[in-house]
């Protein structure tokens, strides 16, 4: 895998949206939040464009992604937000050019579609991180989240280091064991949507990370079952489960008519007989850790240690 050069203060960040349109009132604070970190900013056209719920046409969003990788004056690329639309531009990206111009690429949620293809088609390590127009501009963006983000994008070397949850927020062991593999994954909805396409996620021998937001327990069950039937869960060497924000019963007035997430995980995941950790502080939540997707990690589910080893 290609590990991009770590960012340093004074570097230039290309800011874009491959997905949803950015509310106009959030653009200036998002730019200011990046500049406060010591970076310069080049703002892509997609940060100001709107095509319904999308940040401009598919052609414009693909152009912004390609151009930010192509531009020699851009040192790293931050997705300003998620939303929907990244999957629509996958056929329009220049993967050979992107692989030839490796850079820090950061974002999460709908950006999962890009993480998968950049990891698999470009052999590029990418970063599952909070984003400028969502988390960066929140007043409750905490020190843990900032430190984890900066450690990912400004210290991209291959020295071993631990993923640790915030203090007083322990992980949970669903199944003990130890596994080593490439870290892949992200948003469950986007991962499931990749199945049956040329951009389908490969989980063979890898550590699969999953999280989601605003999905009912029944839909979580359905998507995990689809991954199971597609062989993606059996192929994985281990699983990491992050935040499941607002993922409750379909009818909150009758929770007894649903299955809890813990029950769903127990019924679908524990029969896999491989190490599984849950309650990882990562996803649509604060505080949240940043993850280097594509790096080799070791998961010890008994000691709840997650170590980047390569």
From TrEMBL:
<keyword id="KW-0378">Hydrolase</keyword>
<feature type="active site" description="Nucleophile">
    <location>
        <position position="109"/>
    </location>
</feature>
<dbReference type="Pfam" id="PF17676">
    <property type="entry name" value="Peptidase_S66C"/>
</dbReference>
<feature type="active site" description="Charge relay system">
    <location>
        <position position="211"/>
    </location>
</feature>
<protein>
    <submittedName>
        <fullName>Putative murein peptide carboxypeptidase</fullName>
        <ecNumber>3.4.16.-</ecNumber>
    </submittedName>
</protein>
<dbReference type="GO" id="GO:0004180">
    <property type="term" value="F:carboxypeptidase activity"/>
</dbReference>
<feature type="domain" description="LD-carboxypeptidase C-terminal">
    <location>
        <begin position="180"/>
        <end position="298"/>
    </location>
</feature>
<comment type="similarity">
    <text>Belongs to the peptidase S66 family.</text>
</comment>
<keyword id="KW-0645">Protease</keyword>
<dbReference type="InterPro" id="IPR029062">
    <property type="entry name" value="Class_I_gatase-like"/>
</dbReference>
<feature type="domain" description="LD-carboxypeptidase N-terminal">
    <location>
        <begin position="13"/>
        <end position="128"/>
    </location>
</feature>
<dbReference type="Pfam" id="PF02016">
    <property type="entry name" value="Peptidase_S66"/>
</dbReference>
<keyword id="KW-0720">Serine protease</keyword>
<dbReference type="GO" id="GO:0006508">
    <property type="term" value="P:proteolysis"/>
</dbReference>
<dbReference type="InterPro" id="IPR040449">
    <property type="entry name" value="Peptidase_S66_N"/>
</dbReference>
<dbReference type="InterPro" id="IPR027461">
    <property type="entry name" value="Carboxypeptidase_A_C_sf"/>
</dbReference>
<dbReference type="InterPro" id="IPR003507">
    <property type="entry name" value="S66_fam"/>
</dbReference>
<feature type="active site" description="Charge relay system">
    <location>
        <position position="284"/>
    </location>
</feature>
<dbReference type="InterPro" id="IPR027478">
    <property type="entry name" value="LdcA_N"/>
</dbReference>
<dbReference type="InterPro" id="IPR040921">
    <property type="entry name" value="Peptidase_S66C"/>
</dbReference>
<keyword id="KW-0121">Carboxypeptidase</keyword>
<dbReference type="GO" id="GO:0008236">
    <property type="term" value="F:serine-type peptidase activity"/>
</dbReference>
């Amino acid at each position: 895998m290609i590990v991009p050069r770590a960012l340093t203060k004074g570097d230039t960040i290309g800011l874009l949206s491959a997905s949803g349109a950015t509310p106009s009132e959030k653009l200036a604070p998002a730019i200011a939040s990046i500049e406060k970190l010591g970076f310069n900013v080049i703002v892509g056209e997609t940060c100001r464009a709107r095509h319904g719920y999308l940040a401009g046409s598919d052609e414009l969003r693909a152009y912004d992604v390609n151009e930010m990788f192509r531009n020699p004056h851009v040192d790293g690329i931050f997705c300003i937000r998620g939303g929907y639309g990244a999957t629509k531009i996958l056929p329009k990206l220049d993967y050979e050019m992107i692989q030839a111009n490796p850079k820090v690429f950061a974002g999460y949620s709908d950006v999962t579609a890009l993480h998968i293809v950049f990891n698999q088609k470009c052999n590029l390590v990418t970063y599952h991180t909070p984003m400028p127009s969502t988390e960066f501009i929140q007043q409750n963006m905490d020190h843990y989240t900032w430190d984890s983000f900066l450690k990912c994008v400004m210290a991209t070397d291959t020295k071993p280091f631990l993923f640790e949850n915030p203090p007083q927020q322990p992980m949970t062991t669903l199944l003990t064991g130890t596994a080593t593999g490439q870290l892949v994954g992200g948003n469950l909805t986007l991962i499931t949507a990749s199945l049956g396409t040329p951009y389908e996620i490969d989980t063979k021998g890898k550590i699969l990370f999953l999280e989601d937001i605003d999905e009912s327990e029944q839909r979580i069950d359905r998507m995990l079952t689809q991954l199971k039937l597609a062989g993606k869960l059996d192929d994985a060497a281990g699983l990491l489960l992050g935040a499941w924000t607002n993922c409750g019963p379909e009818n909150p007035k009758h929770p007894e008519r649903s299955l809890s997430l813990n029950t769903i995980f127990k019924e679908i995941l524990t029969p896999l007989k491989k190490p599984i950790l849950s309650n990882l502080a990562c996803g649509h939540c604060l505080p949240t850790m940043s993850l280097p997707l594509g790096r080799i990690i070791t998961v010890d589910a008994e000691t709840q240690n997650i170590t980047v080893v390569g």
